Amino acid sequence: MGLARRKFLQNIGLAMAGTMLIKIPALGRAVVPDGGLLLAKQPDTAWLASLYDRGQTTTYLKSRNELQYIGMPVGGILCGTVYLGGDGRLWLWDIFNRNQEGIEPKEVDWKEAVLGQAKKVRSRDGACYIQPSKDIRPLDQGIAIKLTIGKETIIRPLDEASWPEIAFEATYPIATIRYTDPALPVELTLEAFSPFIPLQEDDSGLPVTLLSFHIRNKGKVPVEATLLGWLENKAAIYHAEDKLHERINTATGGKGWKGVLSAVRAKDAAGAALLQSPDYGNLCLAALDPTANIATQLELPLTAASFSQSRDKAAVHGINEKLTAGVMVKYRLLPGKDIRTDFAIGWYFPNLSFKDIQGKGRYYANHFSDAAAVVNYVREHHARLTGDSRLWKNTWYDASLPWWLMERTFMNISTLATTTAHRFQSGRFYAWEGVGSCEGTCTHVWQYAQAVGRIFPALERDTRQRVDLGIGMQPDGGILFRGEAEKRPAIDGQAGTVLRIYREHQMTTDDRFLRQNWPQIKKATQFIIRQDRNGDGLEDTPMENTLDAIWDGEIAWIAGLCIAAVQAAALMATEAGDTAFAATCKDYVEKGRRNMESQLYNGEYFIHQPDKVKGRSVIGSYNTCHIDQVYGQSWAFQVGMDRVLDKEKTLSALRALWKYNFMEDVGPYLATHPGGRPYALPGEGGMIMNTNPYKEEYPFGVKDAWQLGYFNECMSGFEHQVASHMMAEGMTIEALTLTKAVHDRYHAAKRNPFNEIECSDHYARAMTSYGTFITACGFAYHGPHQYIRFAPALQKEQFKAPFVTAEGWGTFTQQQQHGRGEYRLALKYGRLSLLTCCFEQARPATVAVKAGARQLPATFTHENGRVTVTLQQPVTLHAGETLQVTMIS
C-alpha cells in the first residue's frame, strides 16, 4: 500500500464525516449490455482509496466480453481513422475522405426515462453512446499464425473466436494485445500503433499502422512459426466502376521489406476522372523483413495452403471481384527463444477537400507518392520511429499517478488520429468539433482542448497565426469562430483563443511568435474589452457562445473567461514592451474581478445577472449552478497564471457544483429533467451542466428553446474542465472521482473507451482531460523565460510524472522527507534550456543544483511555500541528461 493511500485511509473518516460528503458514483456498478452488473459495489472507503492507488494497466478481456466495442485509433494523426479492435484486427477504415458525420452515420431509438417514449438519436446526438458501433469492416484484413511442432500443424487466425483468452492493454498510443492458449507452446503478443512522438507532428502523422509481433517458444521442442497477413484491395471504394476501372495488386518493396501495393486503374481514357475522386489512392501491405514471401492474389478462406501461396506477378481483377494481398514471414524458434517481427499497412488517399474551406489535399502527400513510399520511409527510419514511440509510451506511463488517470487524461488525444481532425497539403490544421459535425475548428470548442498545444505545439501555434489571427481575424479584432465558415465571433471562443495564444507563446523558446503577432493579439484583446459596454470589467454584449445561443446580461462564466484572457494579454503586453496596453488590461482585470465577486456571487456560487432591459425573457443560466461558472480561473491555472478570482469564493463555487451538479447516479435526475442528449445513462455517474438549487419554475428564462436540453446533460469535456480546476484548488478527491466517473462511463464492457462523445464521435472538447494531468503535476512552463514549475497536487512525498516542453520531454521526480527535498528533471528526448525552476517546499537553508556531475551556481527565494531557484547561467539539457535540485530545510 502506497504512502498516499495510507494517508488517505487515515483521514477518510474526517472527509466522509465533514460537510463535503463524497458521493460515490455508480461507476463501480457498471451495467453490461445484458443488464447485469459488471462489478459489485465496493465499500465506500475502499473505493475512494482505490482512486489513489497506482494500480495496473487497464486490461480488457475476452472472458469478460470486453473486446467487441474497442476501437483505438492507430493511424497517424491527421491521416483519417483506422481502428484497432480488441482482438487485434483493424476496422472502420475511415481513410477514404468520405467526410461523413459520425463514425457510423445512423439513427437509433432511445427511450427517455421520464417519457417512456422512443425518439431518434442521430450520430451528432450520441447514437454511439446508446448503441456503440462495432464490426464495421469495409475491407477484409487479418493476421493468422501457423505453428508446426514436429508433425503437428496448428492454424489460428488472430481474432476473438479463435483464442480461449485475449487481453487488450489500453495504453494509447501503443496498445498491447496478448493471445493466450495454454495448449500451445508459444506466447504471442501484438503491439499495434502508428509512430507517435511528441513535438514531432510530421513523423506522428504518417498514414500507416504497425503491427509488431513478439513470439516466444515456451515449450521443449523447436517450433516453426509462420505469420500470414492479408489485406483486401478497396482503393476507390465508393467511386470505382466495373465498366471503367479494374483493381490491381503489384509486388513492391525496398531495403529490408517486401509488400503488395493495392490500387485501381482506368481501363481507358473514359475512366481517368477517377483520379480526382476523394477515395482515389492505394494501400500497401508489407512485412518489414527481407525474407518475406508475398502473394499479390491470396486465395481465401484461410487454409493450410494459404501459408504456401506465393505470387510476385501483378494480379488484376474487376472492381466487383475480391482481390486480396498476402504477406508471410516464417521463423524457426528453438526452446526458450523468441523473435520480433513487424507488419505495416500504409495508405495514400490524398484528395481531401471541404466545401468553402481554404485548403485541400492531405499533408502527407507532400512527402510521399503512394502508400509504398510511406512504408519505405517507415522501414528506413524504423529504429528511430518505433524507438522514440516506445520511449514516449514508457515515459508517459512511468508515473506515480494512478494508471487509470494517466490513461484517461491522455487517450483523448487519439482524436487527432480520427476524421475529427485533418491537415491540408498547405500544412493548415483543420477540424470538426466531432467526426464530421460542426465545421471550422470552432474556437468555442477547441479552446477547451488542452492536449494538442502541449504535445504538438507547432500545430496550435500555426493555427493561431494562420487562422485565428489570419483568416478569421476581422478589422475590429473579432475572430470568426469557425474561420471562413462563419461570419461572426463567439465571445467565449474569442477569450479562449487569447488564452491559447499565451499558451502557444509559452510553448516556444523565444519571443518571435509573440512579437510577430502582437498587433493582431492586441486587436483581439481590445475586441474583448469593448464588449464591456458599461465599463465595469464584466462583458455584457450579447454574443454567441458554446451553448449555441446568444445570451444577454453579465454572465459569470463568460465574464470570468474574459477577465482571464485580458490578464494573459497584460502579461504578453509586458513581454512585448507595450506597457501602456498592459496598464489598460490590468485596469480591466481589476475592475472585472472586483465586480464579478461583488455582483455575480450569490454567497455560494457565481450566477448570470440578467440584462437590465430584457430581464429573463431570453435564455440564460441566471440563478442556476452552471458547470463553467469559474472557468476563467480554471484556464488561468493551465497557463501558470495567479488567481483571477478570490480563492474562497471560487472554492465555494466548486463545492456548490459538487453538491448540486454531481450525481453518483444520473438516472433519478434525468427521470425528472428530460430533453438532453444521452451522454450519461441511468446507473452512471456524472456532473450535470446546470442545476436549479432554488427550484425556480423557469430557471433558464424560457421554457421552449431547443438549447434547454444542454442543461440536463453530462458532457465529458466540461466535466474534465471542472476536474482539472478542482485538482488545482486542492479538491483532489472530487477531481479524481469526477474523472473516474467519466472513465467508467467509457468502460469497454459498455462502449468504446477511446471515443468520448458529444456532438458526434471523438469530440474535441474531451481533450481538456489533459488539463487534469497538468494540474495534478502543478506544471507551469514558459519557454522564452526558461522557466519551469512543478507543484504536485497529490503524492508529494514520492511523485513522478512526465513533462513536455517546447523542444524536449522527460520525467520529473520529487522526493520529500524530513525537511529534505530532491527534484530531478531527466530529459528523455530533445533538449531543454532552463534558467529558473520552482518547487513547493518549506524555506530551505541550502540549495544545491547539479547537471550530471556539474555543480551549477544558483540563488533562491521563498514565497508562499514555493522555492524559486535561479541559475547563475542558463543550462541546456540534452536527451539522457538530468538536472537535480537538492534542498535542505
From TrEMBL:
One of its GO terms (biological process) is carbohydrate metabolic process. GO terms for molecular function: hydrolase activity, hydrolyzing O-glycosyl compounds. Pfam families: DUF608, Glyco_hydr_116N. Residues 71-384 form the Glycosyl-hydrolase family 116 N-terminal domain. Residues 492-753 form the Glycosyl-hydrolase family 116 catalytic region domain. This is Glucosylceramidase. InterPro entries: 6-hairpin_glycosidase_sf (IPR008928), 6hp_glycosidase-like_sf (IPR012341), GH116_catalytic (IPR006775), GH116_N (IPR024462), Non-lysos_glucosylceramidase (IPR052566). The lineage of its organism: Bacteria, Pseudomonadati, Bacteroidota, Chitinophagia, Chitinophagales.
